[in-house]
Structure formats: C-alpha cells, structure tokens
Amino acid sequence: MSLVLFGLAACKSKTDKNSHAEHKSGQLYTCPMHPQIIQDKPGKCPICGMDLVLKDANNELVMDSTIARLTKPVNAQVIATIPAISPESGTRIYASEVNGVITYDTRNQTSISSRVGGRVERLLIKYNYQPVRKGQLIMEVYSPDLAAAQRELLYVAHNSQDMLAGARQRLQLLGMQPAQIDQVLKTGNILYRIPVYSNSDGYILEKSSVNTATAPSAMTPSASPAAGDGMGGMGASASGSAAAPAPASPAATPVLLREGQYVSAGQSLFTIYQAKALVAEFAFPSQLAARIKLGQQLLFFPTSDDNAMQSGNIGLIEPVFREGVNFTLARVYLKDNNFQVGQLLYANVPVVYTEGWWLPKKAVWRLGNKSIVFRKEKDVYVPVVVETGIVAKDMIQVNTNIGDWKVASNASYLVDSESFIKTNN
After folding, report:
1. Which residues 6+ apart lie within 8 Å of 422 measured at CB?
2. The model's pTM
3. pLDDT-based confidence at 214, cuts 50/70/90?
C-alpha cells in the first residue's frame, strides 16, 4: 500500500514541475515601481533593485495602451487645458526707438601739434572743451633745437647774408612767427620759448582724451530683434533686447597735459571742434542696423521735450565695436544750430517686416540662448525650439515655419520649476 502511495506522489510531483516550467516560460516579470522594466525571467530591477514580480500579479501597474503616451515626464510634454492659438502672418510696420546724442561734426575739426620737441613751460588750457579763438595763445614750449636755430640765424646774419633767407625759413618751419624772427635779429636776444597758437575758433579737446570722451557712457534700452525685452509699442515702436551703447556727451574734464611735461616734434596735442555745425549720432543694435540705409529719414526729438519733433536724413553709417558691444552709429547732419552739444535724443525709425510668423511674446519661453514654444499634439503640449526675430510690444517674430501649428497661448504656465525643458529637436 505504501508503495502505491509513493508512486502516486512521485507522479504528481513530476506533473507539477512540468506545469510550473510551462507556466514560467510563458510569463513576463516587471518591477512594481518601474513598469517599463519587463523581463522573461525573475531578477532584480536594474533601476531600484527591487525583486521583479509576475506582470499578471502586478495588475495595479498595468496601463491602458490608450493613455500610455500621456505618462511621459513633464519636461518632455505637458498635459494642460490652456487655450491653443495659431500664429499670424503678413506684412507689419514697426517704428523702432533708438537713443542718440548731439555732438560735434568731426568734418570741421582741426588739430594742433608741436612743431618742435621740448618741455611745456606754460599751459593756458585747463579743461577739455574750453572755448578758444583763432590766434589765441595755448601754450609755450622750451626747445633746445629752437635756441640752436636762433644762434645759427644770428651767426648767418653777421657773416653770410646769402644764407639768411634759409635760416629764417628754418625758424618758420619750427613754428616761429616772422615778427619774432625780426625781433631776434633786431635785439640779438634768443627766445627760448616758442608759443603755440589756436588755428581756429571752437572748443578744444586734449588729443589723449578724444577716445575716452567719445566712448559710450550708458546702455540704451534699444535692443536687438532677437530678444524680448525693452520693446516699444506694436505698430508704433519696436526694438530688440541687445542693448547698444549710446554715444556719450562731451564732458569738461581736466587736461592731463601739465607744465614741465616733455612733448616730441610733430606730436598732436589738441583737437579743436567748431560749433557752427553739429550732428546727431544714434546707436543702432546690429540686427536693426541691417535695415537702415543712407538717406533714410529719421524723426527725432530731445528727451526733455517730445513735442520738439524734427526730421533728418542719415548721412553716415559706421559699424562700431566698443567695450565689448557691437553696434552701429548712424549720423544725421543738422542744418540748424538749435541744439546743444551733449543733448540726449530719441529717434523713431519705421521698419517694414514681410517675413516670418507672429506670436504673442508670452507664448515664447526663453531658455538661455534658445526660444521654446509648446506645440499642441493631440491632448498634450510638446516643447519645440524655434528661431525668433524682432520683438514689438507684446508680439514676437518667429522665423521657423510654424504656419500650421497650434501653440500654447502662455508658455510660462507650462514650465515646471523643478525640471528642465527637454526637446527632441
């Protein structure tokens, strides 16, 4: 009897083993915490290390295939019910606002240099942009070369009249006036100081201060079309965000040249600017500068009086790189003299845009040097990188072809502060 029972138990055990083997071969195992991990045999989850369980036993983790695509992380797609909008197209005209300043016309400037090398014995210029008149004494220079040339003149005058004309010419080339040469011949006394006179009327500026005086002193709210702040009104004003420095107004700073300082022959010491003609200089960001041209009309007015609107034509366009900023100076030559040097200006420049698509500025999210829009795909919003252009008031130009897209009306509502935006493109 026991033998029969033992035989039945052995057969049952063998049948159970075969059934269990067949069951295991047809089963899949998954992680309770990470259902995307699926294997055909037991083991550990490669992510969290938990024991894998039978997929059928993990019924609470089995998803409906119709909603599986909605389970992506929030930095890849967002489920939201905010309105979706379509981009707009068509030609638009914006008046960009740029800053400027009244300054001297460099075409009318003159330079003063020392004809001889020597020491500055007397300096009558105390500060930059000091008014001077033609023939006014600016400084006196002591020069050993000039003293030697005068001794040669006196020697020639007493011994060789044939060489007197050449000696006189040499002194004139060194900067002495004919009357001074006659005085030396008459008295026999050598003049150790050579005077330097102003050669025109105007305002004098030390040559070493020219670069610092014209360097930009402030950043304007003018901006490049590629960014999105500091903009004017749509249809009335527009600007970008890359600030361009405005030309600085002249400042009456002390002269660095001092009495007792040595100068070399031919060294340019001062520049004289004439106030009979002034210019208005405007700083354009590089993207906006590509849309202006010579002869284009500008409407500008002083910052202190927006009712004193005037017009002028661009007479010079000059690319400039100062203090690490790339921008363009546009110069308007003024016909009247109602302005003062250093007066700040605003100018309106109408620009026509015929390309691209337009979205509200809040529909585009700035991610470093990238621009992101959330494109609607069925029930979710997916972040996509786009190329942007000019920004005008609450509108932004998109150069990427998004004509058939639906995008979120407000991108800031879809940004998760706990994660970064992940785009597939």
Report:
1. 73, 75, 76, 383
2. 0.55
3. very low
Residue 147: enclosing H or E segment and its boundaries?
A: helix 144-159
Rounded Cα distance between 403 and 336, Å, is 50
User: Are the C-beta atoms of 237 and 390 separated by less than 8 Å?
Assistant: no
**Class assignment of domain 69-89+354-425?**
mainly beta
Cα→Cα distances 70→17, 36, 47, 372, Å: 42, 14, 22, 21
Tell me the pairing of strands 268-273 and 110-113. Answer: antiparallel
Range name among 55-59, 186-190, 314-318, 321-325 with the lowest pLDDT average: 55-59
Query: pLDDT at position 337, please?
Result: 66
Which stretches does DSSP call E strand in 233-387? 245-246, 262-263, 268-273, 278-285, 297-302, 310-322, 325-333, 344-353, 357-360, 365-367, 370-377, 380-386
Measured from the Cβ of residue 47, the count of other Cβ atoms closer than 10 Å reads: 11
Q: Where are the alpha helices (DSSP H) in 197-333?
A: 210-213, 286-289
Residue-level pLDDT at 345: 92
Q: How far apart are CA 54 and CA 77, in angstroms?
A: 30
Residue ranges of domains in the chain: 17-62, 69-89+354-425, 94-108+217-251+273-352, 111-203
Give pLDDT, residue 74: 63
Q: Which two tokens stand for residue 221?
A: 């709210």
Confidence of residue 6 (pLDDT cuts 50, 70, 90): very low
The token pair that represents 144 in the structure block: 């050993």
Q: Looking at this protein, which amino acid is placed at residue 138? A: I
Distance of CA 332 to the CA centre of its chain: 22
pLDDT digits 0-9 by tens, 335-375:
776 788 888 998 888 777 888 899 999 999 888 788 999 99
Query: How many other CB atoms are found less than 10 A from the CB of residue 149?
Result: 19
d(CA 90, CA 234): 14
Is CATH 2.40.30.170 correct for 94-108+217-251+273-352? yes
Measured between alpha carbons, how far is 281 from 309 in angstroms, rounded to an integer?
Answer: 16
Confidence of residue 417 (pLDDT cuts 50, 70, 90): low
The predicted pLDDT at position 338 comes to 79
Measured at the alpha carbon of residue 157, what is the angle toward residues 155 and 160, in degrees to the nearest 5? 85
pLDDT at position 363 is: 92
Question: What distance in Å separates the CA atoms of residue 316 and residue 323, rounded to the nearest whole number?
Answer: 22
What one-letter code names the amino acid at 132? V
| Residue 296 in tokens | 């284009």
